[in-house]
Amino acid sequence: TCSFYAQPPGNWVTDANCSNAAVDGQDAEIRAGVNITPRFIRANGVVQDQVTGLNWLRNADCAGITANWGDALGYVTELNTDGNMAGNDCADSSAAGGNHQTDWRLPNIKELQTLFDYGFHGSPFLPDTTGSGQWSETDPFTGVKTDFAYWSSTTYGIVLDDALRANLDDGSTDWTSKAATQHVWAVRDSD
Question: What is the spatial distance between Cα 133 and Cα 139, in angstroms, rounded to a whole number?
Fold first, then answer.
């Protein structure tokens, strides 16, 4: 049984099947902790996460190089402008007419953490397409890197010259100077 506060009608609603719990802002809208198979759907150079609704570039290393935080933001701007990162075609053809999307961004730290699967004790801490096994090349992402962490858009609140990063090698997050170099992986909200 699910109970939630609905707007409208502005009162508590109880739903025995939890079928109407996906109301804006409710836990069921995000579906955290729910086992959805397949977890990821691949199409047109993009991987959609069925749990979070986020769309990730399928190639987790489209830029092909590590970059400082400012350059990472620039590569995402380049991706939005011409479909490339650091001059590399990112193979995104998910927009109308087979074009690339124009609303990619650097993920925040919480979005990167949604990819972690701590059920696996070994690098990388990512699930496979079904969400029931450990990631392997092309399932569902390509180019996943574990030698450096991935930048997030999240600035470290205590030191504004630092940003948070996610390490797929061990499932950790920490911060480093924005002048350091890390990998770049773009995300966008679903349509």
Answer: 10
For residue 139, give both structure tokens.
Answer: 């399932």
In the structure encoding, which two tokens stand for residue 118, read together?
Answer: 């701590």
pLDDT at 3 over 70: no
pTM of whole model > 0.85?
A: no
H or E stretch including 142?
none
Cβ proximity of 190 and 48 under 8 Å: yes
**By the 8 A CB rule, do 40 and 55 touch?**
no
Q: How confident is the model at residue 1 (pLDDT cuts 50, 70, 90)?
A: very low
Find tokens 């690098």 and name the residue: 123
Instruction: State how far the Cα of 53 lies from the Cα of 73, in Å rounded to an integer.
Output: 22
36's CB contacts (< 8 A; 6+ apart) are: 50, 51, 131
Spatial separation of the C-alpha atoms in residues 143 and 85, rounded to whole Å: 14
